Amino acid sequence: MVSFSVTILGSSSAVPTKDRNQTCQLLTHSDCDYLIDAGEGVQKQLLINKARWSKLRAVFISHLHPDHYIGLIGLVCSLGLRGRTNKLVVVAPLGLEEIINIQLKNGDVHLGFELEFITTNADSELIYSDQKISVSTVKLIHRIECYGYVFTELPKP
Q1: Count of beta carbons in the 10 Å neighbourhood of residue 54
Q2: Which residues are annotated as catalytic?
Q3: Is the full-model pTM beyond 0.90?
Q4: DSSP 40-107
């Protein structure tokens, strides 16, 4: 039995509306959380939805239009301020690591946890796995490099 749940934190396009934030989904499996995209307002939506910030294992960014990742830097900084010590994985197309690292450097931000970037680069590639799930990429058609993610529950021992 698959025990996934998805909470839509944002479903608006490039410009948020009064009632809808930019794109972001929270996927929960067992005691682990995963974000798919991180549009503006992600932190507030996590608070409103009583998400377990400490259970966040990975963030999956579909593409590098800002409305899909602009909330990530604030989230990463807040995780540091909340005392996070466990690693956070960020899966994204090439370029996001440079964007985030420039912001951290120029803001003189020192995180108390490892921020590991995994670059998407192939169709149907196993890109991430932990004890609970595996995630593969699916290349999508968009104006820029863009990926969907397939989450698969791993067999229980």
Answers
A1: 13
A2: 67
A3: yes
A4: TTHHHHHHHTT--GGGEEEEE--B-SGGGTTTHHHHHHHHHHTT--S-EEEEEETTHHHHHHHHHHHT
